[in-house]
Amino acid sequence: MNARSQPGPHPAGPTILQAPIGTQLWAMIDEHRAILAACLDGLSEDEARAALVPSKTTLLGLVKHATFVEQVWFDEAVTGRSRAEIGISATPDESFDLAPKDTIASVSAGYAAALTSSRRHTAGLGLDDIVSGNRRGPLPLRYVLLHVLRELAQHCGHADILREQLLAARQGAEVSAR
Known about the structure:
Layout: H1 21-38, H2 45-49, H3 59-79, H4 83-86, H5 104-122, E1 130-131, E2 139-140, H6 141-177
Antiparallel strand pairs: 1-2
């Protein structure tokens, strides 16, 4: 077993294991939100924008896309406001596009604001409550939470690999400079 697969206490604490499923889902979503937000820690602006794969996927783009995900699933789906009203991209692919004004600080602040908004929009909703603003039609909040958790977990994996590549390149540059 490597260090990543060692069992240990859950980051949300031992009581999360006996908590109701809704509490567990929100705890896992929050855990993945924090992991994704932290992927930019200690990086330069150039590193955060580095294109290491053929797609639009960059670390800064992943956090910007996660902001879009929050707004689609917890604003559009819950409140019924359109993407135009929210002020977000029309498509998921466009949400990875980085503008010159996008910085680690601005994208991180946008993500934090989206998380606050998501919590506000879902306060008081139960897992079986129906949200009707999604393009798929009416959905139970349970589905929304599972979808967001799946998407965050996927993007945390992407971010982990991209960050590992960046840090390895940084270490390689330090070794060759010696």
